[in-house]
Amino acid sequence: MKKTIKRTFRVSKYVIYKETLVDYKEHFWSFLGAFFGIGIIAFIQSHSLTETENIFLIGSFGASSVLIYGAIQSPLAQPRNLVGGHVLSALVGVTVYQFVPDIIWLSAPLAVAFSIVLMQYTKTLHPPGGATALIAVSSTGKIPELGYWYVISPVLSGCIILLIVALFFNNITSNRSYPSHSRFKKLLRKKHAHGHVQHHKMKK
Predict the structure, then answer these.
(1) Which of 52-66, 76-90, 187-201 has the lowest mean pLDDT?
(2) Is 192 inside any structural domain?
(3) Are residues 41 and 65 in contact, defined by beta-carbon separation less than 8 angstroms?
(4) Residue 58's closest CA among 38, 80, 76, 43?
(5) What is the mean pLDDT of the chain?
(6) How many domains does the chain fold into?
(7) Quick check: is 61 in a domain?
(8) What's the mean pLDDT in 130-151?
(9) pLDDT at 66
(10) Which long-range contacts (CB under 8 A, 24 or more apart) does 77-82 make?
(11) Residue 185 covered by a domain
(12) In contact, 90 and 133? CB cutoff 8 Å
């Protein structure tokens, strides 16, 4: 277990360091991805919900944006981690709240701790997931009333929006590739190669 944690830390540290070396053009695409990802969710909230129903834009999405738009090669930023981490953590948070709704000193640590273990077990570790679980047990107003609907909206629906935007902006140039799965990279290379072939044929 210790070796796995140390290895994950080293890989994450290297990936984050590597991301900081990307040129300003790549930072520009990171900016646009985060802007549109969060912007779309905020737009839906502002036009579909009243100010007292602030339930579609949750804080943990901001943390996810740092990973999926700014550190796209990180193992923690991949689609499986983004969606799985948030959804599983939301399930844990809501379930814990059902059993201990009024004991925050117990429900908060239980929600976060169980969500971490579940993400580790399912290989969907995504740090913002801990915040998603915490929100489920510590928020007031509409979120506690949602129950398990919280898992579907805002959590799952918001993750899908962030992911769709990430798939577009993180693959918009040849220097960016997301997700980092080898099969997806091969598919992108084939598409780029096919596009170059067609371009040369048109020139001839």
Answers:
(1) 187-201
(2) no
(3) no
(4) 38
(5) 84
(6) 1
(7) yes
(8) 92
(9) 96
(10) 77/126, 77/178, 78/179, 78/180, 78/181, 79/163, 79/166, 79/179, 80/123, 80/124, 81/119, 81/124, 81/125, 81/126, 82/126, 82/159, 82/162, 82/163, 82/166
(11) no
(12) yes
Determine the residue type at 116: I
Contacts 24+ apart (CB under 8 A), 159-163: 159/64, 159/82, 159/83, 159/86, 159/87, 160/83, 161/37, 161/40, 161/41, 162/37, 162/38, 162/41, 162/61, 162/64, 162/65, 162/68, 162/82, 163/68, 163/79, 163/82, 163/83
How long, in residues, is the chain?
204
Angstrom distance (rounded) from CA 130 to CA 112: 5
CA 154: distance to chain centroid?
13
Hey, what are 182's tokens?
């080898």
Predicted pLDDT at 55: 79
Tokens of 143: 């979120």
Question: Are 72 and 176 spatial neighbours (Cβ–Cβ below 8 Å)?
Answer: yes
What range defines the domain where residue 43 resides? 25-173
In a domain, 188, yes or no: no
Q: Give the pLDDT band of residue 192 (cuts 50, 70, 90).
A: low
In Å, how far from its chain's centre is CA 177?
A: 16
On whether the CB atoms of residues 124 and 80 are closer than 8 A, the answer is yes
H helices within 100-176, ranges in order? 104-122, 128-138, 142-146, 149-150, 157-169
